[in-house]
Amino acid sequence: MPVTPSLQSRRAQLPAGSELTEPPPARLAKLPAADKLARLLQVAKGHRRALILTHDNPDPDSMAAAVSLAHLLERKAGIEAHVGYGGIIGRAENVAFVRVLRLPVSHVSQIDFSQYDLFGLVDTQPPVRNHSLPARYRADLVVDHHPLREESLLAPFADVGGDFGATSTMLVEYLRAARLEPSVEIATALFYGIKADTRDLGRETTQTDVDSYLWLFPRCDKQLLGQIEHPELPARFFQLFHTSIEKAKVYGTAIITDLEEVYSPDLVAEVAERMMYLEGMKWSLAYGTYRNQLFLSLRVKDRRMNAGRLIRELCDDLGGSSGGHGSMAGARLPLSGSASKRKALKREVVSRFLEAFGVSEERPVSLLSAQDT
């Protein structure tokens, strides 16, 4: 029999003593890991099947954390738990990540949401809208290292807004508090999740990230890690990077590139990251089209600016979703109408970012013709 999806119905079906009679703590993020774990298990108590969702087009940090949360719920709460994602897993490293570690993740098109009575979001939050939880369901569990969105606190369990460089770090904290030894596959997934999201502990890293990284290091499989980090790449990957260089324009200390149509939206972030290596750059913006949506990725070196806040301010009125944190952020905007309207939207987006960067729109220099200074 399908489980009734209504939140109130699900609460009514809980066994005696397990119903939540008081609101959750306002800021779980400030509590010790043991207290968070206790709250998590309290919320999970009495449920039968959990569905944990990553953000759409998930990266390793999101998938590692989701798989680890599902594992924790199965082992410590006795709940059957599955992991789902929307969009695609397209980047070669991410495809290898799932394949090599045999991660049990399923596309949402294969999932019957009515079969679950507990829902979780990992590495994203309800109001961000870059996830595939249908509007008729509410998230019971929200675990995310990105800045807090106030609406997330409506979830019975919301560990959001803490001082972490990766969501995988948060799951390591839970596992350690539960004295639960991860499998080699989960340990390797979490290790790579932290490694990738903090750029080898070199970006927005906290001491907790370092401690988790060192705790995982002897537990992960270095051979599997090598297969993930150095996969074979398809020809279209190099074609896309050729386009990114050919289209890149330098505006003083900012570099912006139009990738046109991309075969995987997560490659937009990879290009934005790579463009920041250009000498003298403080800002990098890459954008590309995928299935009638415009994907943007922003990188910032200026510590006075917050990339996540900036991209929300510039893109929220354009629809879609946006978010991020200090030095990196992304957005997904709907594209519709004629080709001229789509081009106009791109021009508007670029103009907004250039103004925010404080650089002139006039006389940009092609990357191919830029001279070393």
Question: How would you characterize this protein structure?
Answer:
By secondary structure, the protein is α/β, with parallel strands linked by helices. It has two domains: 223 residues, Alpha-Beta Complex (inorganic pyrophosphatase (n-terminal core)); 135 residues, Diaminopimelate Epimerase, Chain A, domain 1 (Roll). Helix content is 37%, strand content 18%. It contains twelve helices and 13 strands. A seven-stranded mixed sheet has the order 11-12-10-9-8-7-13, with helices on both faces. The longest helix has 19 residues.
Task: From the structure above, extract its key features.
Diaminopimelate Epimerase, Chain A, domain 1, about 35% helix, 6-stranded parallel sheet, about 20% strand, inorganic pyrophosphatase (n-terminal core), alpha/beta, about 375 residues, 2 domains, 13 strands, 7-stranded mixed sheet, single chain
- In CATH, the homologous superfamily of the largest domain goes by the name inorganic pyrophosphatase (n-terminal core)
Low-confidence stretches: 1-24
Structural class of the helix and strand makeup? alpha/beta
Number of helices: 12
CATH topology of the largest domain: inorganic pyrophosphatase (n-terminal core)
* Helix content, binned percent: 25-40%
Which oligomeric form is depicted? single chain
The string of secondary-structure elements, in order, is: HHEHEHEEEEHHHHHEEHEEHEEHE
Structure summarized in a few sentences:
The chain is an alpha/beta fold and 373 residues long. It contains twelve helices and 13 strands.
